[in-house]
Amino acid sequence: MEDSVAFIGLGAMGSCMAGNIRRKIQASATLYIFDIDSAACEGFVSKFEQFGPIEIANSVEEAARNTKVLVSSLPNAQAVRKAYLGDLDGCILTTPNSERLLLDTSTIESSLAREIAVKLSEMGVGCYVDTPVSGGPPAAASGKLSFMIGQTKPRDSNSMGGRIQHILEMMGEPQKLFWCGGIGDGLTAKLSNNYIACSVLLVVAEAMEIGVRGGLDPELLYEVIHNSSGQTFMGDILHAAQKAYRQARNVFPIDLMIKDLALIVVAGKENKVNPRMAQMALNIWHEAAENPDVLYLDLLKGSKP
Fold first, then answer.
1. So where's the catalytic machinery, residue-wise (predicted)?
2. Topology of 4-183 in CATH?
3. DSSP-assigned beta bridge partners for residue 103
């Protein structure tokens, strides 16, 4: 069992994931944390210090220096590149340690993940693995995330894969750890999944709009769809969130939807696929982002004719 872990990025997802690590590692083990928002770090300590020691680092390098495991949850490719490679593509992790695991849960280009993995391996500072997640803040809080892992399935608990599995099971369900092959393959799986999710949400929204404008009660229409051939996973989880919060502010802001769709378009072109639906969906989400009334998804509310 690891005697310390570092966690970088304490946003809506990261703070929940790091919290579950702090709860589940040994009480004597130290959790090192870093976020560019110092208030996020201080708030995290106040919330989770009861479970064991937490130290706030002043940089990614400092957080990683005294541990063999670092987990990151960052908002975009630029943040990931800066965290691991620095501003000028010089490795920011200067302490050599070939056994250090660097598990990045961010959603970025597969090609960038491979670039980072090669550079860090060449410098002997650690093994970078893409481990993107699915499930959103509710699953992050409950420790029931899905992980798509850019590694082969481990043969034993003492291998690198076994160490990865041990850490990820602190944040996700064992049956939802998907071993996708090599570096970057976890991200390819994640982007393929998000292609469907981002597009289906638009179909659900337009279908609900047609029904509501046609005079149907939105709750009734949802029940019809939920119990018929139009039922979708994304429609169901969004409905559940909106029932709880009335506005889906904890589900998925549109700027992240746009980011993921842009990555999907790039991935399609890199793999010689013309992602026509993704491009259409991206254009629609760009239009939505310009409307202040729909910065967050709210399919139950509907719009007035």
1. 190
2. Rossmann fold (3.40.50)
3. 71, 129
